[in-house]
Amino acid sequence: MASETPAKRQKSSKDVPYRLIYWPGLPGRGEHIRLALEEAGAEYVDTAHLEDGINDVLAYNSGEQPKDETNIPLFAPPFLQHGDLVISQTPNILLYLGPRLGLVTDLENDPDGLYRINSLVLTALDGLSNEPHDCHHPIATGLYYEDQKEESKRKAEDYVKNRLPKFLGYFQRVLESKASGDGPWLYGGKLTYADLVLFQCLDGLMFMFPKATTKLEREGKHGKVFALHKAVAERPRIESYLESSRRQKYSNGVYRYYEELDFEG
Ligand SMILES: N[C@@H](CCC(=O)N[C@@H](CS)C(=O)NCC(=O)O)C(=O)O
């Protein structure tokens, strides 16, 4: 409904399940959304598990959806549909979901907290998701990996040697800061969706670069980052999700395993 205000929409769509629209067959960027929904125990439909789920993605990608006059055309999944709202961009979707799912700090007492959490998320996605993606697609997203193998080797070698320790070092600093508060979490002494994002990024990197991540863990300089990964994996809802068939295996997504890119750093 074009004339409905956001406040009204939230109210009217409060009980509507969320719908995650994402490619089937791989965790990909959609996984950040799934983890938030799973941790919160939210009711949601994941089109990756529907028989014709891929058609939902294709309909948005082609511009066939959304059909209404309020929502903007969307570029690439993940997409989140909630009531009559459809949005894209992983951190934007998380910004929408975080407060609704209770995955932020107490915003009444800490109204700036959301922007701190968002800053952590954007940094994690820059350095621990987008840059790893560029390790297997350094020249062009539209070319096959096989057509950019030599450049991929240069990129991946530099990534594990310089960029990965730099980003893990940053998150270690955050976890050592006063703002992190008590416990294993990044901000405010409470689990937020930023912790779930960092978990998923590190999890993917452990799959993609087992030699480098094992070495970094053994060196002990980023102990708090690895401890956060463990703490998230042990959350009861996350643990049962990770063991379920809803958790898809890594394949040809952001995090891929190529033996020739598995540098130790
Ligand atoms: N910055 C966007 C990136 C979205 C994106 O690249 N989606 C991928 C799947 S994970 C895709 O299908 N991209 C198609 C394209 O870039 O042409 C986000 O974080 O959601």
Automatic annotation (TrEMBL):
<protein>
    <recommendedName>
        <fullName>Glutathione S-transferase</fullName>
    </recommendedName>
</protein>
<dbReference type="InterPro" id="IPR004045">
    <property type="entry name" value="Glutathione_S-Trfase_N"/>
</dbReference>
<dbReference type="InterPro" id="IPR010987">
    <property type="entry name" value="Glutathione-S-Trfase_C-like"/>
</dbReference>
<dbReference type="InterPro" id="IPR036249">
    <property type="entry name" value="Thioredoxin-like_sf"/>
</dbReference>
<dbReference type="InterPro" id="IPR004046">
    <property type="entry name" value="GST_C"/>
</dbReference>
<feature type="domain" description="GST N-terminal">
    <location>
        <begin position="17"/>
        <end position="105"/>
    </location>
</feature>
<dbReference type="InterPro" id="IPR050213">
    <property type="entry name" value="GST_superfamily"/>
</dbReference>
<dbReference type="Pfam" id="PF14497">
    <property type="entry name" value="GST_C_3"/>
</dbReference>
<feature type="domain" description="GST C-terminal">
    <location>
        <begin position="110"/>
        <end position="251"/>
    </location>
</feature>
<dbReference type="InterPro" id="IPR036282">
    <property type="entry name" value="Glutathione-S-Trfase_C_sf"/>
</dbReference>
